[in-house]
Write a structure and sequence with these properties.
- The chain is an alpha+beta fold and 353 residues long.
- It is built from 10 helices and 11 strands.
- The two termini are 50 Å apart.
- Its main location: endoplasmic reticulum.
């Protein structure tokens, strides 16, 4: 049987030579670093094919090849990492040899590719060296979000069950039945302000501080310090809206810690806050407004003034200023959350396409 020469395409990197032999259903026979024998289907049908190349510089004896239905890919390592001016020792290129433009890079591009691989290797080593830290970080964030989820779930379930059993009567004792757990959850929430400062999460510091500070003013200053406010229905609406938002937010972050994305939960986390967050701020504003006359009457937390100006300045003036800041915070947080929602939607869209 006549032995024919196949079409061979080549490309190089600093450390390797890539050869692509155009033969379908090929079987590789005897081979050396300078010649190879194949049997397969080429341009002239089923035949035996062979080609021989005398390389410009020495190469290693190990040869890797991979056969597919359309071609044979060969990878040969150079003896020294060096860029070759040409592939063969002879200056005149063999007729069967041509550049493989699918893999072709010039020397500068190959150097950039090599540099990128080195950087990737360094980054991988850096990440591997930080594995214990990353493990502790994920474990801490997972446990924090789990504890908060369980706390707010207890509040939500408790209030829901009491609402079904007692109806509107449950509005008036919400504080006394759920305040301890809400105190615990909101004191824990201070960590959400600290975490961005320590670089543990990518969430912005100011949006977290605005939300946590705002809620703690409502919980500790208005509800906690005024017994007259603790039996008002507004407490029910504030607590119920807070817990409804959080029973979807904390599981979302909890699953993110372990690299899991549940589509339904993601949709709920980024959709329910659109109506619930403004409603929560409105409920908080109603609590502040209802507390103003009580602070005026009791003079609690009033600021002492010099005798010339009067006895004291009512704390209600501070709360009126706080009302303005509350709605400013609503705008900042709403904008921040909306940007998060859009970024996530765009990243999902890119993955689909």
């Amino acid at each position: 049987m006549q032995i024919l020469t196949p079409h061979v395409y080549w490309a190089q990197r600093h450390g390797e030579i890539y050869l692509r032999v155009e033969l379908s259903d090929a079987k590789v026979g005897q081979s050396t670093t300078s010649s190879r024998l194949f049997s397969g289907h080429g341009a002239k049908g089923d035949n035996e094919y062979e080609f021989s190349l005398e390389f410009l510089r020495p190469v290693r004896s190990e040869i890797n090849h991979r056969s597919t239905q359309r071609q044979v890919d060969i990878k040969i390592k150079k003896q020294e990492e060096h860029w070759w001016d040409r592939l063969t020792l002879q200056e005149k290129k063999p007729l069967f040899l041509a550049p493989d433009f699918d893999r072709w890079l010039d020397e500068s591009d190959a150097e950039m590719e090599l540099q990128a691989k080195e950087e990737e290797k360094i980054n991988r080593i850096s990440v591997e060296s930080r594995v214990p830290y990353l493990g502790l970080k994920k474990g801490y964030l997972f446990m924090y979000n789990l504890v908060q989820f369980l706390g707010f779930s207890w509040v939500f379930v408790n209030m829901t069950v009491r609402l079904f059993i007692l109806g509107q009567d449950s509005f008036y004792d919400t504080f006394h039945t759920t305040a301890d757990m809400m105190y615990f959850c909101q004191m824990m929430a201070v960590l959400e302000v600290i975490n961005p400062l320590l670089g543990l999460v990518k969430t912005g510091f100011f949006p977290a501080m605005i939300q946590v500070t705002g809620r703690n003013v409502i919980l500790f200053v208005i509800f906690g310090s005024l017994e007259e406010m603790q039996n008002k229905p507004v407490v029910f609406f504030v607590f119920y809206l807070w817990s409804t938002i959080e029973i979807f937010r904390y599981p979302f972050y909890m699953l993110a810690c372990v690299g899991t994305d549940w589509k339904l939960l993601t949709w709920l986390r980024y959709s329910l806050w659109i109506p619930l967050y403004p409603l929560g701020v409105i409920a908080e504003a109603m609590a502040v407004i209802q507390s103003l006359p009580i602070f005026d009457e009791t003079r609690l937390f009033s600021f002492p003034l010099p005798a010339v100006l009067g006895q004291s300045l009512s704390f209600s003036y501070s709360l009126q200023l706080y009302l303005v800041l509350m709605f400013l915070g609503l705008f900042i947080n709403f904008r921040h959350l909306y940007k998060q929602r859009r970024r996530r939607y765009r990243s999902r869209k890119r993955k689909v396409h």
